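Tutorial, part two.
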Amino acid sequence: MILVLSGQLYNQDTTYFTVKMISLVKLASMLVYILAVVLLLLKYRKHVEDIFSNAEKKYLDWLWLLSLALLALWVIAFGSTVIGWAGTVSPPVGDGPVLKFSADFLLC
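Running the prediction step on this input gives:
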């Protein structure tokens, strides 16, 4: 993130390999955060079941659906990044129209 904010990532001296590694680190960190949220929601669900006898309205289903949607966006970003690395689509495809359309569709 420091490289992105400082403008060092997309200057003329940056190699394509560096851009690939930064993309990989960004995708890995996104996956870690999404999985952490999913695991916390599963833990919360078990905790709610232990406390309440009728817990169906206390499961935070909206947050569960949002987490799954973010995981789906991650899969799309990962797939488009790998396709970009294979050379079938010009880089940087991870921030390309497929991911933007998917994010827009999620927001609607």
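The CA atoms of residues 24 and 101 lie 21 Å apart. In part three we will examine how such features are distributed along the chain.
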